[in-house]
Amino acid sequence: xxxxxxxxxxxxxxxxxxxxxATLVPASVAMPTPRLVHLRHLLSFRSALPxxxxxxxxxxxxxxxxxxxxxxxxxxxxxxxxxxxxxxEYEEVLGCLASLITQKVRADTGNRGNxxxxxxxxxxxxxxxxxxxQLKVVHVAGTKGKGSTCTFAESILxxxxxxxxxxxxxxxxxxxxxxRLDGLDIxxxxxxxxxxxxxxxxxxxxxxxVPMPAYFRFLALLAFKIFSDEQVDVVVLEVGLGGKYDAxxxxxxxxxxxxxxxxxxxxxxxxxxxxxxxxxxxGILKKGVPAYTVPQPEEAMSVLMKRATExxxxxxxxxxxxxxxxxxxxxxxxxxxxxxxAGLAIALANxxxxxxxxxxxxxxxxxxxxxxQFIKGLSSACLQGRGQIIPNSQVNSENDRDSSLVFxxxxxxxxxxxxxxxxxxxxxxxSDGIQPGPSEQPHTDRxxxxxxxxxxxxxxxxxxLLPRLLDTCAQNGLHFEHALFVPNQSQYNKLGSxxxxxxxxxxIDLSWQLxxxxx
Length: 519
Description:
Blueprint: E1 2-3, H1 33-42, H2 88-98, H3 106-109, H4 118-125, H5 129-134, E2 137-141, H6 146-159, E3 164-167, E4 179-181, E5 184-185, H7 188-205, H8 215-229, E6 234-238, E7 256-259, H9 267-270, H10 274-281, E8 291-293, H11 298-311, E9 315-317, H12 338-355, H13 372-380, E10 388-391, H14 393-398, E11 405-409, H15 415-428, E12 449-454, H16 462-475, E13 482-485, H17 511-518
Parallel strand pairs: 2-6, 2-7, 3-6, 7-8, 8-9, 12-13
Antiparallel strand pairs: 1-11, 1-12, 3-4, 4-5, 10-11
Helix pairs in contact: 6-12, 6-13, 7-8, 10-11, 15-16
Family: Belongs to the folylpolyglutamate synthase family.
Organism: Zea mays (Maize)
Keywords: ATP-binding, Ligase, Nucleotide-binding
């Protein structure tokens, strides 16, 4: 988070020229009450975060604002309450969904499929076998960049004129973010209708031998129901965790598969070596289905190639997109690492078009550039919490024009991603650097004050995350003035600027946050 100079707002006892970088979860922090009130105001999402953009909309960030915030996805999606404006029936739906969240610790289950064979039974109960078989799927697994790659691929294919469905995880504020139709979150009305159909059908036909599906499995089944009934032309499907035993892997014949950058994550489930992790990710590869990946560590690449050979799959390695092929257009998602994700998305979209017989739709102006539809899709892609810059409009409008506050949000939750995040933040806040985003992106100056707002789940190792973040920032001449460590649990029941604080403050265990502070 960063704040520019000028007089502080009347309700915010922050010193002048406050600037901050932060990871964001709605939470109360052990600090003086006035500053806590101000932070609560700052962390109200509903008025600050833009909704996904339609195909012809431009990015809404004003060019005159300076500051930003960083949000690690390690802590994203922890609130399942939804926005403060939902209907009573929608609240009931969210309550039913919350009842499916398993209380098991990830490491308790291991990764022996956790009764993965139940997924086929759920598909049968919902009579989705034929519907899933008819979907034209782009299936993407990996450690880092899955959501961004899927977002790019969907945006490209939508720009080519196709009716698209996109399933990603996790959500930041509202579960409907996971289900996009033509680039927009599914409507509340449609979500409720499809939810009750799946819920009641499964409730009627499950029992002791076949329990109700766990949270993510239910959402994956719901996605298949939504996309089949909505008759989308293409489904872009992000794996939730791993690959072989993931709920999305009930798709037996995708059009094309992609595997993004691989690294160490979810080791308590996927394995302790890169080879073990890679074998899980490679579980989405299917015989006769073309597949693409990006340059990988040697151990990971050898496992991928071996599995591809066993299946007779053509696994091709793609490289980062050359920015010159974009005809001076920026990527819709910021950060130099996004050029790798964009390169993979281009290969996936192009292969989907080729295998579906639609390459004739493409229009290329110059031999050295991408088709117009690809450029449009890549430049208009939007995904919250990935290299996202959010000016606090209320604070900025109430100050004089030299004062500002900006949040830089990113979902980094591995050591490699922390480095990429720090490099992006340093670049975005360096006035001498060239901004890697739209011209209307807020521009900060290097003299602004930087604050870190951070959290990660207890399954993460902060010794692998925080030093990488701070060292990379320091290497780029960036230092944080303060760091705030916030808990997962919010004192608010809902997210949004209309939410009211509880009448009595609940005591929250801050032992993990104190551990982070020591690191």
